What does this fold into?
Amino acid sequence: MIILDGKKTSDNIKDEIAIAVAKRKEAGLKTPHLAAIIVGTDGASMTYVNSKVKSCQKVGFNSTLIDLPEDTTEEQLLHEIEELNNDKDIDGFIVQLPLPKQIDEQKVLMAVDPDKDVDGFHPVNVGKMTLDLPSFLPATPYGILELLERYEVETSGKKVVVIGRSHIVGRPLSILLSQKRKVGNATVTLAHSRTRDLASITREADIVVAALGIAEFLTGDMVKDGATIIDVGITRVKDDSKKRGYRLAGDVDFESVSKKASFITPVPGGVGPMTIAMLLKNTLQACENRD
Ligand SMILES: NC(=O)C1=CN([C@@H]2O[C@H](COP(=O)(O)OP(=O)(O)OC[C@H]3O[C@@H](n4cnc5c(N)ncnc54)[C@H](OP(=O)(O)O)[C@@H]3O)[C@@H](O)[C@H]2O)C=CC1
Ligand SMILES: Nc1nc(=O)c2c([nH]1)NC[C@@H]1CN(c3ccc(C(=O)N[C@@H](CCC(=O)O)C(=O)O)cc3)C=[N+]21
It folds into this structure.
């Protein structure tokens, strides 16, 4: 069994980005600048945004964090987005999800300039991605493709089951893996809460991606011997023995599944760090697109 080490791989990718940034600076080119808007103070979102800022420093990017109160109106948020769209120094930005309920997520995502949409969530980028045209790939699916590529996990002709059809992970990943691309050419099944007899479907799969958000949902009896397992889920589970009072759990029961898997991602240290690395990669790309 081989652990797909997302932490180490993301560090390698960040080193590559740092070199590219240093070269840009030497050549007198612009330093990439990523901004993030966060509305409210949801604990997990704060953790993610903070590690994004730290990673920006590590690769030599400039970063801006716009922290808005929980009771921000949709109009106020749209105004902030417009400012970032018009800011010549900002190459890319993200609006951290989920948003408070008074704000229409779809409206917000559509307000982001597609050229600065480094999350790849704008319909223009989703459309381009779906049509195999160059676009910003959403960071989590992009990170999974990158991890599979760097560990040389074969996807061509393989049966893949993706569990979860969210617009940010499951759906785009299912599209990408089915495409004619280096990490792709798979036969993909997209499962969700209405799927019947999921275990009989996952047991046939060469690769299972668990992205449903239920801690330790995928168990050893649901996978076949030698399968590759990608665990996207991150759930905070109360644990008083831990300093922070919780531990992070994936959607995979690592203990039972790792006994059968040939490759498996851990949580933490798997898909999460890859997501951040690919967000930086998209931001570098956005900056280069403006040279
Ligand atoms: N590592 C990373 O970088 C990231 C991690 N995450 C984590 O990934 C997990 C999923 O998040 P996200 O992609 O936003 O998904 P959502 O929470 O938006 O959606 C969950 C999906 O899982 C499906 N689902 C729920 N229960 C079941 C079930 N019992 N059987 C099969 N399918 C089910 C739902 O089906 P239906 O559509 O029918 O409701 C839905 O499609 C979360 O733990 C989140 O924290 C998310 C983003 C990035
Ligand atoms: N606009 C937007 N874009 C996103 O990409 C986005 C989002 N909103 N909202 C929330 C989800 C979640 N997400 C994570 C990214 C990194 C880790 C990560 O680095 N996790 C570490 C652990 C971090 C910890 O200690 O909590 C790990 O898995 O090792 C986790 C989750 C991005 N998302």
Remarks:
- DSSP finds ten helices and eleven strands in the chain.
- The chain has a mean pLDDT of 97.
- The longest strand covers residues 33-39.
- The CA atoms of residues 85 and 113 lie 6 Å apart.
